[in-house]
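Internal QA ticket QA-208
Title: Verify multi-chain structure generation after dependency bump
Assignee: T.L.

Test input:
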Amino acid sequence: MNVSPAPAGLSSDRFREETAPVAELRAVTKRFGDVTAAKNLNLTIDRGEFLSFLGPSGCGKTTALRMLAGFEQPTEGDVLIDGGIVNDSPPFCRPVNMVFQSYALFPHLTVEQNISYGLKQRRPRMDRSEISRRVARALDTVRLAGFENRKTFEMSGGQQQRVALARAIVNEPKLLLLDEPLAALDRKLRKEMQIELQDLQRQLGITFVLVTHDQEEALSLSDRICVMRAGEVVQMGTPRDLYDDPKTKYVADFVGTSNFFEGTVLSVKEDMAQVELADGSRFEGRASDSFRETETVCLSIRPEQIRLTGKAEDGAIEVVVQNRIFLGEHTEYLVRHSSLGNIIVLAPRQAELAGTAFNQGDRAWLNLSREAMLVLRQD
Amino acid sequence: MRVYAICVYLFLYMPIAIIALFSFNAGRHASQLQGFSVQWYGRALKNPFVMDALQTSLMVALVSALLASVLGTLTAIGLQGMRGPVRVIFDGIIYIAIMIPGIVIGIATLIALVTVFDQINPWLAALWPEASEAPSLSMGMGSLIAAHTMFTMALVVVIVRARLSSLERDLAEASADLYATPFGTFWQITLPLIAPAILAGFLLSFTFSFDDFIIAFFVAGSETTLPIYIFSSIRRGVTPEINAIGTMVMLASLILLIIAQLILRREHKA
Ligand SMILES: Nc1ncnc2c1ncn2[C@@H]1O[C@H](COP(=O)(O)OP(=O)(O)O)[C@@H](O)[C@H]1O
Ligand SMILES: [Mg+2]
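Actual output:
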């Protein structure tokens, strides 16, 4: 199916179109005056995947997205869509659609007119009946059938969000760009919309690129996540990769929660490194990278990988329970170690039911297994 | 305090109320009420001089307001795309144009046009095949329309600019993202959204032009607009007929201004 007015030269080469990644950034740098919003971005976006840009506010996620959409031109490097360089092609020539954070629905048009807007721009003109068929299908997809003649400002935030989605997907773009689409919704609605987004992506097979600062959102939705920091890509991988094998402290901290202990490398053996902490205690952990001896590193352990017991076991460290938060299926403990400071532990409900519950002020022991400890580069 | 406020309002509106009241006077003296009648309204509307002046005024107001709306809107859109010092300068010039007193615009336009006509007319006479039939440029409808357009265009620019800058950049971007060309975006998104502001600007321009006496006095040449007619009749004494004309002009202007305000207000809410 002919999807949208692709720039001449892109659609001509069918072979390239089908084998090349749907989009690609090659050594892309974007500067606004003195501010470098994106620095040497290199990434490929595969056909049909759900990719997220994750990072704190101001790290250049929106800029990356806007370069894919065509609203910004890279200062250096190339943006490719379907294997062709599109640096200078304006937004209306790119087979890409965007869902804006503000939704940017046209206030003077009805829901139906908003959704059909993209189809009506096509030349040669599309049949009226074909347009209304597709609009009806898009409305169905986002479960808004019956809202055709509403004005958009009469609708709730969640409904506006779905109109914005429908307005984009009705064009069957090669790439759907979403800039923090759920940020304006309340928590419960956000959860619902996350599930809907994921269903939608699977059902349509369109490549989604999502921008978010919400790690939970990125982890639950994406096939791949691209973690960004100050305009640069820090690490890219599947949610599981990033969670289990973060390469730096920044990623471990941003993707999920973790406990960090600073120390220096004593020795490295194969993929295990021995680290001495400031208080002289020594721990062994999996080395995420190749380290030199005496290098300053960070030991990281996830709260759910720590086992909290009431008896002193071999290699366990003694702590005092500071606080206990009941989270339903888990209980979160904040414990204090005399020299390591505060540590967060997540205990499963079963442990509680088995009788190992602790109260504030109780003494307890932590088992820090060497398999769960990660030695990370300090950054 | 309240008494003071009442005095101010009395002071402001008494003269207008008196004019309206005396326009219903049955007698022919402007200063003596002699019963109620609408006869002066009828007379005013039958007076061929009044109707002629009214026609001129309407023509000038309509054409100058149309020109001002089109030119002003284009200017506002052009300014919107500008950045930096150039924009600051042009913004300044627009505001100055609004603040300049009408009398200055009137005199300046008069002098400028007279100078230009003096230069051009000999050339026209020399270049025309039949020297005696050569057209000669002079003050009149053209100069009136030009002077009014100049003044009211600045109003339209300011009103449309306010509306344009309140439009989210996102809307134009969303339109471009949905495959609309820049012209398509202007036609389908920008124009419909600023249309109420343009209409309000048109109504205001129309009213300003229709009510203007000072500028018209200088540049009208042999044309007589309604305010000029009123001015020249008053020199022969105020009659209830003049009061009737004044009341009608005031009502018409007021209605137009209120409509313009309502449009702008509603726009603000949407
Ligand atoms: N149009 C612009 N002009 C100047 N600076 C900009 C512009 N757009 C973004 N920036 C800057 O680039 C950086 C990255 O911004 P952005 O991509 O919006 O970050 P994010 O979406 O991750 O919050 C910020 O420092 C921001 O101030
Ligand atoms: Mg952003």
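Spot checks passed. The interface with chain A takes residues 168, 170-171, 173-181, 184, 188-189, 192-193, 270 of chain B (CB under 8 Å).
Status: verified.
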